[in-house]
Specification:
Length: 68
């Protein structure tokens, strides 16, 4: 319950901040966050990779990494 509330609060606060940012800065921020998440190779990134492998069964490992 507390985790859900905290997640909602953080999301709402960050969304307000992002809306005030210049578009180029916002894209740069989210690109950096995506690269950080990819490098950590957490459960969600691994799940995304597995989902792409199911949807694109003939894709090579390199092609899957480009999608992720």
């Amino acid at each position: 319950m507390i985790k859900d509330w905290f997640t909602y609060f953080l999301y709402s606060a960050l969304w307000r901040v992002v809306r005030t940012m210049p578009e180029k800065s916002a894209y740069s921020l989210f690109d950096s966050l995506a690269k950080f998440a990819y490098k950590r190779d957490g459960k969600r990134v691994q799940r995304l990779r597995l989902n792409y492998a199911k949807v694109c069964p003939k894709a090579t490992k390199t092609e899957l990494e480009e999608l992720v």
